[in-house]
Amino acid sequence: MSTIVSISTAPGIGGIGIIRMSGENTFEILTKIFRPLKEEKIENIKGYTMKYGNIIENGEIIDEVLVSYFKAPKSYTTENMCEINSHGGNIIVKRILEICLKNGAQLAEPGEFTKRAFLNGRIDLSQAESVIDVINAKSYKEVKSGIKQLEGRLSKQIREIKQEILDVLVNIEVTIDYPEYDVPEVQEKEIANMLDSINTKLQRLEKSFDNGRIIKEGIKTAIIGKPNAGKSSLLNTILGEERAIVTDIEGTTRDTIEEFVTINDIPLKLVDTAGIRKAKDEVEKIGITKSINEAKDAELIIAIFDGSKELTDEDIEIIELIKDKRVIILLNKSDLKEVLTKDNETLAKISKNIIKVSILNKEGIEQLYDKISEMFNLNEINLDNEILITNLRHKNIISKTIENVKKAKEALDINMPIDIITIYIKEILEELGEITGEAVTEDVINEIFSKFCLGK
User: Fold this and answer.
1) List of residues 6+ apart from 230 with CB closer than 8 A
2) Among 98, 145, 53, which Cα is nearest to 383's?
3) CA dihedral defined by 364, 369, 375, 376, rounded to 10 degrees?
4) CA separation for the pair 395, 9 (Å, rounded)
5) Could you tell me if 386 and 210 are in contact, meaning their C-beta atoms sit under 8 angstroms apart?
6) Arithmetic mean of pLDDT, 238-255
């Protein structure tokens, strides 16, 4: 393979920048451009060590750097690798990158370092995918889930399931080759027990995606209410910044505003919507239609009502819209005279989760956070002991595998020939191999690594 190089730190000004290089000619290129304070032959330099010196071009010092050495096979890619730690800033790191390219390295593609780690057998495909999950994590729970998968927790579970299948498959193959040793009743029971066992394990993994998806993508949460109920003020309070325009003029919000926020380590995809009422112009009508659609698609509704006033026809329209949803009701403006109470029968019919708040004075907001935590129970997920499926590709493969387990069981129940049942069992093995990368097409591999950032 060629020797690749890329900037691994994010663009912009920072304390340090890191240029990563991997491949057979890494140290040869490094020798041309790096002058350590103490000269030493590469064979005498130990892996996992650093040397101080300067990057040189045509005798000119380009930057003062620290270089980390990683020798094959004990490196991220299993190849010879180095990381040049330079001063931060776009100019200097790009200059060092250009010098590496001039001396024989090739620019790495997105995710190519991790791709080489996979192709060289240091990690499997599910572990490689967890790298990007850790990088893109929006909450600590997502980080922790990604780290567990990077450690190989899912891979280990898949290997155990595959081994359970292989143990039975070997006996089937022997029976096909030597039918005189066949005891049909014993073999059928063995196959049935195996299929039941792996079905239970696969079902558990599939069901874990519900929580895994929430941890990764967040709970889609729509903030609903009539104009001036306090929707945009609530969004700004939760975010801790003036994200949405707030005025006394009704209908200020004409479009949806989306933001991602973590509350009590629960990720929420918050959507502030236009106030729902009879539209006064075409633009507002479009905004209200979008609000209604967001409410229909949301997993959680935060419905805000003015607690200082009786329910209006517009409020009743909102109640009809959200009556079958998972809802938290906020009675806003508790700093004013209370008119609308928690005991209101119309509100109580759609939700027991009713909280008095004053968004202006930031009162009752912590109760809202506690209620969200209570409703979704993510604190009960034990990431130390549970395996969570957070990747849609994995979930789809597991669902497809469960279907083949079902087909194999049906074939067994109607006494289909053993070699037909074997076809389904081999398909199960093949599909599980798609998760770990043992049976996956090059197109799938390229698609996965194209989502990575440069330098990883």
Assistant:
1) 304, 306, 330, 332, 333, 359, 360
2) 145
3) 170
4) 32
5) no
6) 51
Q: Please state, in angstroms and as integers, the Cα–Cα distance from residue 255 to each residue in 224, 278, 384, 446, following that order.
A: 13, 15, 41, 37
**Radius of gyration over every alpha carbon of the chain, rounded to an integer in angstroms:** 29
Using one digit for the tens of pLDDT, what is the confidence trace for 266-294? Answer: 788 888 876 665 555 555 565 666 777 77
The whole-angstrom separation of Cα 414 and Cα 428 is 20
Decide if 118 contacts 437 (C-beta within 8 A): yes
Question: What is the layout of strands, in order, in the sheet containing 49-57?
Answer: 34-36, 49-57, 60-70, 81-87, 16-22, 4-7, 106-107
DSSP 386-424: ------HHHHHHHHHHHHHHHHHHHHHHTT--HHHHHHH
* Residue given tokens 């780690």 in the structure block: 117
Pairing of strands 354-356, 327-332: parallel
Q: How is residue 279 written in tokens?
A: 């539209």
What angle separates helix 418-436 from helix 153-177, to the nearest 10 degrees?
160
**Alpha carbon of residue 371 to chain centroid:** 24
